[in-house]
Amino acid sequence: MVVRSTVNLESRRQALADLLSSSGSLRIEDLAARFEVSTMTIRRDLQALEDEGLVRRVRGGAVSSAQPFEARRTRAGRAKEEIARKLTSLVPSGGVGICMDASSTLCVLAGSMPRSENLSVVTDGIETFLALTRDPLVHAYLTGGQKDPNAGSLIGPVASLALKQFSFARAFLSAAAVDPHFGTSEFSAEECEIKRLMAELSDHVVMAVDSQKLGTGAAARCLPWDGIDLMVTELDASDDRLDPYRDHVELL
What we know:
Layout: H1 2-23, E1 25-27, H2 28-35, H3 39-51, E2 55-58, E3 61-64, H4 69-74, H5 77-88, E4 97-100, H6 104-110, E5 119-123, H7 126-132, E6 138-142, E7 146-147, E8 154-155, H8 157-163, E9 170-173, E10 177-179, E11 183-186, H9 189-200, E12 205-208, E13 220-221, E14 230-232, E15 250-251
Parallel strand pairs: 4-5, 4-9, 5-6, 9-12, 12-14, 14-15
Antiparallel strand pairs: 1-3, 2-3, 7-8, 10-11, 11-13
Helix pairs in contact: 1-3, 2-3, 5-6, 6-7
């Protein structure tokens, strides 16, 4: 019986790690229901996986510690495509400046931009910048700075200084996690600093997140609800999963 229990334990934890690697982030309650164990058991499993460096625990759930950009771009691919489809209607027709963060969701938008002549786009994402440069009508700018090993974005004083040379009609941002009470959060304070600056320099802030991030938390609080004008997900705006956010922000 002890051997069988050990095998089940190891199999469950491996399945947990694999699931988080493919999904990116999941909530403890959802994991407990999926594996038909208690939330306390899932917490112990996540602690063990975190000790091995395979996952990172966040408030209410966990995220995979190993998510290269390409893996993040393919995760929830259909959701990202639907979000990008919605976002295209929000891209100005041209003659103004917008900014995009380094998220994989906005990289999808960058690769499918509507035809907008003389549109300037500033980003802290290398992959997003490369996607933008494929459109000859877009004036793409990369902030420069130090690469964040977790998010893949460019951070630090060089990135901040570059951003401060611009003003934006609209900021397109994403988040590691979204809490219905206080707003968005990220895995590092440095990432928060860049996103807050993008929001501060913009007339209108759009938050683009897939629904798996709703109701989750990460280490560093970033944007409060009063700093966000519109939240875009792949869900229909009438979906009841969005009910906790209706009093805080406009939904699309």
